[in-house]
């Protein structure tokens, strides 16, 4: 059965009418290397995560560069009246954390990739806890999805969403107007792992390659040198 990789015309138009003007009003743009995003075929967009606002701002960026982002969202959102219907209609994929259904989101993502979707994936799994806001050690879901599906991984870094809405805060900081910076890197080379069984060691190494590619783009955006070792919330 073919899965939706783009919403109906009504829901797409509604989202665009709301998100694009709001995004343009709230932030200035510094968008780089959008041409590196393939316009067709299943792809994994692997991005860093700074704020609850960055999925919306990234969605605007990806839409302007020819792709409708299929977002992975907490399963609880799908149960909220009206909001749940809207999230589902916009082709989001529910993420079931800490349950027997946890693997369902990866299975659903794989189906969407086969149908040509662009999956927006946050390998960290949550907003970074690094004190300097660099990407953390990633979880292996994106790497597993890439190795099992063969879909290209496109690293995307962004900076500025945290200034608009810092993690944990509910009220945005509107003034002065912030700049949302985005940089797209070349496709992550995972050819080293082709044909290898996706055991834990392979997945960790592939994940490290993906996170390194995202971090390199973020270092370019920030004009700073990234730390040699990413922050590990498990090991501190």
Automatic annotation (TrEMBL):
InterPro entries: Plipid/glycerol_acylTrfase (IPR002123)
Signal peptide annotation: none
Swiss-Prot/TrEMBL GO biological process terms: phosphatidic acid biosynthetic process
Pfam family, one: Acyltransferase
GO molecular function term, any single one: 1-acylglycerol-3-phosphate O-acyltransferase activity
Domain of life: Bacteria
Keywords (A to Z) from UniProt: Acyltransferase, Transferase
CC per GO annotation: plasma membrane
Record SUPFAM superfamilies: Glycerol-3-phosphate (1)-acyltransferase
Domain Phospholipid/glycerol acyltransferase: 43-161
Protein name: 1-acyl-sn-glycerol-3-phosphate acyltransferase
Lineage, top ranks: Bacteria, Bacillati, Actinomycetota, Actinomycetes, Streptosporangiales
């Amino acid at each position: 059965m073919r899965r939706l990789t783009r919403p109906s015309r009504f829901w797409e138009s509604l989202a665009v009418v709301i998100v694009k003007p709001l995004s343009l009003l709230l932030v200035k743009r510094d968008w780089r290397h959008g041409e590196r995003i393939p316009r067709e075929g299943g792809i994994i967009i692997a991005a860093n995560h700074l704020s609850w606002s960055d999925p919306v701002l990234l969605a605007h960026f990806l839409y302007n560069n020819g792709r409708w982002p299929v977002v992975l969202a907490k399963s609880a959102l799908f149960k909220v009246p009206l909001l749940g219907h809207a999230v589902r209609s916009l082709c989001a994929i529910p993420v079931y954390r800490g349950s027997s259904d946890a693997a369902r989101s990866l299975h659903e993502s794989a189906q969407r990739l086969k149908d040509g979707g662009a999956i927006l994936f946050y390998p960290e799994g949550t907003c970074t806890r690094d004190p300097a806001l660099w990407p953390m050690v990633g979880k292996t879901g994106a790497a597993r999805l890439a190795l099992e599906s063969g879909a290209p991984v496109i690293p995307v870094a962004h900076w500025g969403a945290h200034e608009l809405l810092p993690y944990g805060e509910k009220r945005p900081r509107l003034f002065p107007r912030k700049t949302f910076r985005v940089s797209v890197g070349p496709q992550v080379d995972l050819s080293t792992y082709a044909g290898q069984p996706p055991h834990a060691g392979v997945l960790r190494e592939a994940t490290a390659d993906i996170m390194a590619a995202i971090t390199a783009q973020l270092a370019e955006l920030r004009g700073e040198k990234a730390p040699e070792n990413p922050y590990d919330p498990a090991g501190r």
